[in-house]
Amino acid sequence: MLVISDFSEFIASFLENLVVRNEQVIVQAFKRIDKDSKGKISRDEMKSLYVSDYIPLNEKDLENVFLEAEQDGDGEVTHYFFVQSH
Question: Can you tell me the distance from the alpha carbon of 21 to that of 14, in angstroms, rounded to the nearest whole number?
């Protein structure tokens, strides 16, 4: 059991727990999009997410979102960038 001696330790512990849970949610989201489990998200995988979740985004907007997320010119969004950008 965690022993907390003052309020600032309580807040720090609470925030650390939130960060860990947030990171876990982000990793799970990435895995959901990364259908082929390559550790990268392709344009088609991103597009299928928008279609399957009925997110209203036209082709131009999808392309802009993808180009912003795709950092190294290989046409895919890496796991590292996906997690770091959140």
Answer: 11
**Which phi and psi (to 5°) does residue 47 adopt?**
-60, -40
What domains, with CATH codes, occur in the chain?
Answer: 37-86 (1.10.238.10)
List, as one string, the DSSP characters of the chain.
-----SHHHHHHHHHHHHHHHHHHHHHHHHHHH-TT-SSEEEHHHHHHHHHHTT----HHHHHHHHHHH--SSSSEEEHHHHHHT-
* β-strand partners of 76: 42
- Give the tokens for residue 66: 């993808």
What is the average pLDDT score of the chain?
79
46-55: per-residue pLDDT in tens? 888 777 776 7
